[in-house]
Design goal:
The chain is of the alpha/beta class and 104 residues long. It has 2 domains: 31 residues, no CATH class; 46 residues, no CATH class. Strands 1-2 form a two-stranded parallel sheet. Strands 3-4 form a two-stranded parallel sheet. Helix 1 links the parallel strand 1 and strand 2. It is elongated and about 50 Å long.
Length: 104
Amino acid sequence: MVTRPPETNSHAELRGRRVLICRPEPEASRLARVFEEAGAKVRILPLMAREPLRETPEQRSILQELDNFTHVIAVSPYAARRLLEEADHWWPQLPVGIHWYGVG
């Protein structure tokens, strides 16, 4: 009997597997391509759509006082992009001394 060593290619573990991705676009398609390249059969099921909220006076005030914060946390790439887009209206150059964090 001939035995083969286990495959060391991590992609082999995904070959033929069915993967469901529940992320909004465009991240869902980018992630799906990675899994497909690894041999998985991928379906995408976006369960929410992202839409920016209308700016409120409170949000405007917080953005104008951005230099008073020492830490800013964005919970997703989308949240980080939106924050930078909104801050750009009030800050031609972002304030220095802020620690920026991204999750996700």
